Amino acid sequence: MKNFEYVNSLLRSKKNSEQDLIECIKHNSCLIIDDVFSDEELKDLLELFDRDYENYYYCWRPVPAQFQTVNFDVLVTSPELDLYVRHPSILKIVKTLLSPSICVSDIFLCYLKSGSFFCQQNWHRDCEHGTNHPLRLKYLQAIIYLSDVNNKTPCFSISPESVTAPLPDKEDIGIPVPPPQSFINVHGHAGTVIFFNPAVLHTATVYPSNEDRKTIHIYYGMGDMPYSLWNDSIIPPRFWRDHPDLEVRVFYKNINQRTRLFSDAFHATKS
Ligand SMILES: O=C(O)CCC(=O)C(=O)O
Ligand SMILES: [Fe+2]
After folding, report:
1. Per-residue confidence (pLDDT) for residue 233, from 0 to 100
2. Ligand 2 centre from 245 Cα, in Å?
3. 68 DSSP β-pair partners
4. What is the whole-number distance in angstroms between the Cα of residue 126 and the centre of ligand 2?
5. 39 CA distance to ligand 1 centroid (A)?
6. Predicted pLDDT at 2
7. CB 45 within 8 A of CB 143
8. Which of 136, 142, 200, 260 is in Cβ range 3.0-4.6 Å of 29 for a Cys bridge?
């Protein structure tokens, strides 16, 4: 396992040119930025998270075997999160790496509570590699740490991969695989944003500790994609149908079947 200093020196540069960002993803499939949010924005995000967890507990569900509790419907329960999903600094990076034309796929809040008596991981990939994309991206995922993450807390771990690495013959999606030979545990203070290719092996790592971790997870896709990655997040029509700004409607237009199901159902109750 490569250590924390490796991450610090290789991936955390304050003065990132577009080319630096591209090179970093090209060689590591992962990029860590820790100066995206102002103090006020971070405070606002944390309050949003805590308020959502307290007020909408019935929308949060456990993810078995990972100590995670997640809310996939956060744009319904806390629509103000939209401002952070479309935060200009984040979108600039996503557009540089993924495509000038982007959309959102899935979004969730995740509360990872400690409680394991041993180190626990669940290595997996969330999608296939984008073999036609210069950085092998089909989606780009952003994980925002809302609490400090260190070797006493649960963390995100990834097995960095270069775009020249051979691809596996068969990419099992969402299925647990054996731990890779090398990986990094991503530590960082609250406000750290990790951008990574979700086709690359990654996991949450849980330690026997009393510390919890709060995160926001956002999958960005390319604008012309006909579907979203999962059928998890409901995107309310206020974004993809009723928003006054065409650019926002386009950004959220890639609605999944679950969103369609609920939209149809609520329309039906009106008539
Ligand atoms: O919670 C984590 O650290 C990783 C979760 C995960 O696999 C994901 O967001 O795709
Ligand atoms: Fe994942």
Report:
1. 93
2. 31
3. 63, 112
4. 5
5. 25
6. 44
7. no
8. 200
- Predicted local confidence at residue 3, as pLDDT: 42
Ligand 1 atom at minimal distance to the Cα of residue 126: 10
What is the predicted pLDDT for the residue at 36?
92
CA distance 231 to 6: 36
Residue located nearest, by CA, to atom 9 of ligand 1? 217
Assess contact for 244 and 154: CB atoms under 8 A: no
Edge-to-edge strand ranges of the sheet holding 184-186: 120-121, 202-206, 155-158, 184-186
**DSSP assignment of 107-127, as one string?**
EEEEEE----SS-EE--BBSS
- What's residue 15's pLDDT? 65
For residues 195 and 145, give the distance between their C-alpha atoms in angstroms, rounded to a whole number: 11
Can you list the domains of the chain with their CATH numbers?
Answer: 4-270 (2.60.120.620)
The residue whose CA is least distant from atom 1 of ligand 1 is: 204
pLDDT averaged over 10-residue windows placed end to end, the chain, 271 residues: 45 72 92 93 98 98 83 98 97 96 95 79 93 96 96 92 90 87 92 96 87 95 81 94 96 92 81 51
Give the number of other Cβ atoms within 10 Å of residue 250's Cβ.
Answer: 15
